[in-house]
């Protein structure tokens, strides 16, 4: 661990307080489940907030809720300045949700994930709830947000968005895509002026698409949308052969987007590309794919030329030593049911009998840490992947003065929680289990009063632990 603490316990109550602080803070700090500086109520006329640890990767198992309140008669305008959140088409894993809490009863939350910032969000009421949830596996850089109070007449959108319905902002991919996303239908008006002999439906088993005038420079202010649809039971492989678009760090000027769906929702985005590097070959998960090309009024380049081909979805393209994801991508077999989402569509973690965290080649070993003997399990596995403790000797060093905690009335509940984190239960394959949420809640309930007398606040957010009683998902005695 790089350091060593040895208590000199001359006053029992002082030792109890000291050991409680050290152990609980270690758990919270090393696990990253200290109540993160995220969430809360924001009441100023303008402000900003971001995901935990931003601009670094956000932690797993985060739950943050911000409630924005502005003056009566005003609305809230919210813009995501940066956005990178792990996600699939349904945003099942990590997600940001926007929900108006008053004035729009019955309105479902709007959910976002992926790597493209959602459009500007203008509320109807003066209350908005923003919720961020991350799962236990892959993380990303997260997001940063700015908001301000506006009058209804001040509602606006970014320069590359379409404003309709007195405050709804649409990304350009939704404009002239054949679907009426605006109640006033302005998103599908005058589309003949925007489509300059490009885009349209592609329904053959193979075909090609390119920017207008290719290989000559494409015209300014273009919006081209190709909707590829092949028979059911097939997937689509898209190959770019030539590619040269105006370069920009965020690809916010000229760009190509490829979507794993019949539309252009943020959650279905497979990639946004610009510059001069050839995009990778992309494979849809179903029989439909959408390609969007957008050019602004500035610099124009030579554009792109691409071909697509349909193939049977049941065709095996991966080797016997690989797992075939739902979208055709290949992953090593060791990535299946390892507790991490390695496939973009999450299919490597479907139909798993239980969540078992990576064991890094370790096997089960008898519990030797004195504090944790005689619990509901007698086998553990190291290294400890949560606390970065290499072996039981390291865990025993941290817990060596545990006897001082026995003065607490809630010791047995606290012992279960501490041991299931420092010396976790081993699964038959050498992995380990988190404690169930009920273990943490029981310790919190029984220990809050005792710790409160010592001036110690409970530092652990129990809600991020699995809410289950299934012994294959988490540990509960």
Explain this structure to me?
A hairpin with a 3-residue loop joins strand 10 and strand 11 (168-171). The two termini are 29 Å apart. The strands form 7 sheets. The protein has a 5-stranded mixed beta sheet with strand order 1-3-8-5-6, with no helix packed on it. A 5-stranded mixed beta sheet has the order 12-14-19-16-17, with no helix packed on it. It is 12% helix and 26% strand. With 477 residues, the chain is an alpha+beta fold. It is built from 4 helices and 24 strands. The protein has helices at 12-31, 392-398, 411-422, 437-453; strands at 40-42, 46-50, 63-69, 75-84, 95-99, 110-112, 121-122, 127-133, 142-150, 161-164, 168-171, 200-202, 206-210, 222-229, 234-244, 255-259, 269-273, 282-283, 288-295, 303-312, 322-324, 330-332, 365-366, 379-380. Residues 1-14, 28-36 and 354-362 have low confidence and may be disordered. Helix 3 (411-422) packs across helix 4 (437-453). The longest helix is centred in the N-terminal third of the chain and has 20 residues, at 12-31.
């Amino acid at each position: 661990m790089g350091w060593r603490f040895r208590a000199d316990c001359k006053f029992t109550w002082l030792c109890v307080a000291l050991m409680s602080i050290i152990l609980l803070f270690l758990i919270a700090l090393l696990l990253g489940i200290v109540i993160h500086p995220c969430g809360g109520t924001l009441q100023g006329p303008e402000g900003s907030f971001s995901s935990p640890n931003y601009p670094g990767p956000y932690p797993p198992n985060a739950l943050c809720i911000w409630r924005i309140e502005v003056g009566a008669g005003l609305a809230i305008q919210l813009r995501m300045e940066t956005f990178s959140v792990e996600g699939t088409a349904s945003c099942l894993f990590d997600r940001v949700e926007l929900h108006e809490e008053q004035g729009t009863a019955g309105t479902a939350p709007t959910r976002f994930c992926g790597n493209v910032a959602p459009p500007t969000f203008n509320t109807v009421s003066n209350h908005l709830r923003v919720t961020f949830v991350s799962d236990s596996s892959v993380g990303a850089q997260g997001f940063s947000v700015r908001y301000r109070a506006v009058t209804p007449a001040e509602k606006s959108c970014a320069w590359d968005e379409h404003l309709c319905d007195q405050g709804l902002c649409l990304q350009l991919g939704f404009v002239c895509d054949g679907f009426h996303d605006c109640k006033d239908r302005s998103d599908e008006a005058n589309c003949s002026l925007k489509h300059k002999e490009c885009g349209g439906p592609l329904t053959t088993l193979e075909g090609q698409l390119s920017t207008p005038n290719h290989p000559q420079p494409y015209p300014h202010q273009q919006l081209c949308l190709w909707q590829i649809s092949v028979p059911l039971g097939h997937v689509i492989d898209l190959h770019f052969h030539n590619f040269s678009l105006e370069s920009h760090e965020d690809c916010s000027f000229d760009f190509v987007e490829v979507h794993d769906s019949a539309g252009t929702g943020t959650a279905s985005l497979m990639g946004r590309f610009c510059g001069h590097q050839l995009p990778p070959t992309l494979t849809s998960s179903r029989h439909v794919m959408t390609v969007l090309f957008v050019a602004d009024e500035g610099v124009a380049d030579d554009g792109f030329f691409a071909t697509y081909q349909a193939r049977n979805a049941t065709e095996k393209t991966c080797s016997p030593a690989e797992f075939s994801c739902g979208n055709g991508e290949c992953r090593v077999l060791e990535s299946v049911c390892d507790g991490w989402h390695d496939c973009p569509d999450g299919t490597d973690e479907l139909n798993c009998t239980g969540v078992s965290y990576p064991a890094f080649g370790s096997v089960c070993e008898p519990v030797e840490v004195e504090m944790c003997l005689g619990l509901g399990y007698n086998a553990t596995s190291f290294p400890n992947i949560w606390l970065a403790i290499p072996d039981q000797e390291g865990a025993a060093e941290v817990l060596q003065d545990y006897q001082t905690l026995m003065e607490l009335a809630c010791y047995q509940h606290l012992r279960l929680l501490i041991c299931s984190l420092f010396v976790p239960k081993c699964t038959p394959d050498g992995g380990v289990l988190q404690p169930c949420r009920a273990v943490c809640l029981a310790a919190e309930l029984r220990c809050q009063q005792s710790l409160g007398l010592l001036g110690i606040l409970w530092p652990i957010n129990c809600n991020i632990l699995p809410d289950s009683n299934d012994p294959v998902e988490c540990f509960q005695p």
